[in-house]
Amino acid sequence: MISDEVKNRHRRLVDEISRHDKAYYVDAKPIISDREYDALYDELVELEKKYPELVTPDSPTQRVGGIPLKEFKPYKHDVPMLSLDNTYSPGEVMEFIQRVRRIIKDDEIEWVVEPKIDGVAVSLRYENGILKVGATRGDGETGDDITENIKTIKSVPLRIPVLSDDESQKEEIQSQVVKEKKNLVPEVVEIRGEVYMPIDGFEKLNKEQEELGEEKFANPRNAAAGSLKQLDPRIVAQRPLDTVFYGTGIIINELSRADIPQSQIELIEWLKKLGFKTPDKIWVCKSEQELLDAITELDKIRHSFRYETDGAVIKLNSFALRQQCGSTAKAPRWAIAYKYESQRAMTVLKDITVQVGRTGALTPVAELEPVELAGSVIRRATLHNEEEIRRKDIRIGDTVIIEKAGEVIPAVVGVVFEKRTGKENQFTFPRTCPECGSAVSKSSIIGEEGIIWRCVNEDCPAKIRGRIEHWCSRGAMDIEGVGEILVAQLIKAGMVKDVSDLYKLTVSDLERLERMGEKSASNVIKAIEESKNRDLWRLIHGLGILHVGAGVAKELSKHFQTLDDLMNATKEQINAIPEIGDVIAESIFQWFSNPKNKQLVERLRKAGLNFKSSLYKSELISKTEFTGKTFVLTGELDSIKRDEAQSKIETLGGKVSSSVSKKTNFVIAGKSPGSKYDKAKQLGIKILNEEEFLKMLKDAGAM
Ligand code: IVH
Description:
Blueprint: H1 4-26, H2 34-50, E1 73-76, E2 86-87, H3 90-103, E3 111-117, E4 120-127, E5 130-136, E6 142-145, H4 147-151, H5 165-173, H6 176-182, E7 188-196, H7 199-211, H8 220-228, H9 233-238, E8 242-252, H10 264-274, E9 283-285, H11 288-301, E10 309-316, H12 319-325, E11 335-339, E12 344-356, E13 362-373, E14 376-382, H13 386-391, E15 399-403, E16 411-415, E17 440-444, E18 451-455, H14 461-472, H15 484-492, H16 507-511, H17 518-531, H18 536-542, H19 550-560, H20 563-567, H21 571-575, H22 582-593, H23 595-606, E19 630-634, H24 642-651, E20 655-657, E21 666-669, H25 675-683, E22 686-689, H26 690-699
Bound molecules: 2-(butylsulfanyl)adenosine (IVH).
């Protein structure tokens, strides 16, 4: 039996930590120091370790659940999650206002204007105040149940309401406050809003991805969506995600006598009281002029928000009036989105060209009449793939709308059909490679939807360019100074046909190229020379074998230790590595079976490149402090580059992971560490500062 005293202590700790989470993550006004917070948290962890029966669903320890899921369960929304119709000009906004006015014959209509947050729409279901389900929008009717991922986001309350600090003190004196608070919460309520990745967090994450040789995210929205799609909540917990809430779905209220808001303004106040984050600023407008002014003002200040805002949402304030307007199947009639013009532009699609990438993938590119967009002149935009052109019915000569959101490359989002004259030409996607005229074949990319056409010719000039650029890139052989322009020059001058030719270049060769002085020429040659000693995984990654990224390359070099052993391996032997499946094994095997590739490898050997792995394989290396341990790096290190630190750890038999979990043995924290640091503290994982880490390397003989 657990004593009442222990139970009460547990309850108090849960409440108190939840309150501090709200103060820190929702209100940005921490009440206690990190140290005091940690002490409370540690006490809670200890208590729950001793009495596992005490663990409640709203305990802060439950933010990171256990095991990764195999797939997400579907979740049917009780009330569908609609989307919004878009407008692009004040004129269109006025048309919307008139449409509403025709339905509601009231002179004094109140409008609200809110920022349109460029995040991922989510719906949180609370039952009797406890967070039960977090789900994505999906098709509006049914989304994915991503509860475990949602729980990792600290600004999401696990139980509502979260009492504020002074209220909780009052609670001791008068239980009346508690009763009032209870009336805030219906029996069942779906709270709706957006999950987003703050812009600074996004930039930091992408820097880390780059350093680890992983794919970068195109923009904060993709990064947020990609994070929420992770099946392992422990990875999600490392991602800097935040929330804004502005709506509700179902509210079941029969028994609880909760005071339910009757307008958007009341709703936002209510959400705040419950402990949710709400939009940075909201305008209440009583006239058309006020409304247009609010939209203009938002445009001026939106860049100061932590999330990307690509527009304004205009809503009727009163819920009763909303009822009168109703909804279509897709969107409500009482609200509309206004997309800011600076993010979009209209121009003429002069032509469609097709670009060929390193893997031979054919990507259609829109050649545009130059147009200014968000401060830069845009001449080209991506059209993604053949299917996209067909779906949007994009024709050459069309007037199109292009959009640039955040850091993404501009894309064609649609055609202005009213401007069609009939003289436009349909685009036929080439069935031969536009670079070399060879045949193309259909393939799909792992993890991506849609069919990709690829050039089958291994000697296609576009592929050669792409392969050499990839070889020199940071995540592969890391040859500084050899980028797109120099590679194109080298190929044009006939100096380089494949990556092995790089190692034959001399300073005087390079000096013959345009805009290349002696100093830069010798720097480039030096960088190429240095790359000969790169670790084997970089070389394997650099070969550009389809589906072989940095991660797979590391597994391969750990397992085989030399390039020769990998080359001589059977498909089955490659497939036997746990991280490597059929498709990848087949791709690797095929690559090394190709006589041309074998010859390339021989040329690289002759050039003196390192073919041996320094990554740990258990039988080969004597044990060190690092052997078999998992490390996580966070923050900036002064005296060692992050990838250098990583390779040293790996050389010594350790593993570097991008996320902290119970399996992490050490977290190395540099300057201004991220959330990984907090997580490590929570889990009681050993944290090393830079000095301690360097000492450990030294002791293991790696410094
Ligand atoms: S209200 C019934 N308010 O934009 C639909 N939506 O393009 C009510 N969004 O699906 C939506 N910020 O995911 C609303 N302040 C805001 C919003 C917002 C972003 C999203 C939402 C919606 C999408 C429509």
